[in-house]
Write a structure and sequence with these properties.
This protein is 92% helix and 0% strand. By secondary structure, the chain is mostly helical.
Length: 108
């Protein structure tokens, strides 16, 4: 192989490598291209996601406040129940004492 044939062969190999590289670049960008419609769709979806996250945060805050209110109401109700039970216990004891007093006073 003389010098001219070597140069031509090297040029052909480099041109084929260039052509393959350019074709691969074109394919990658052809299939990964994002159109304007896709960008507007992504913007709309991101806005909806942001709104959904805000709604979720508001719902969580509301539920936490409601849970605190219900916990407080339950504690108050339990305190009232305890006071009512104590009052009932005292009333029963007093009624029993009065029955015992009446039973002792009747035979006499």
């Amino acid at each position: 192989m003389n010098r001219t044939e070597f140069i031509v062969a090297t040029a052909v190999v480099l041109f084929v490598a260039f052509a393959l590289g350019w074709f691969a670049y074109w394919l990658v960008h052809r299939f990964s291209r994002i159109g304007q419609n896709d960008l507007s769709e992504l913007d709309r979806m991101s806005q909806e996601l942001h709104e959904a996250e805000e709604t979720r945060d508001q719902a969580i805050t509301y539920l936490q406040q409601r849970e605190a209110e219900l916990t407080n109401q339950l504690a108050q109700t339990e305190a009232e129940l305890s006071a009512a039970m104590d009052g009932l216990r005292d009333a029963r004891r007093e009624a029993e004492e009065l029955r015992a007093y009446i039973e002792r006073a009747e035979p006499a």
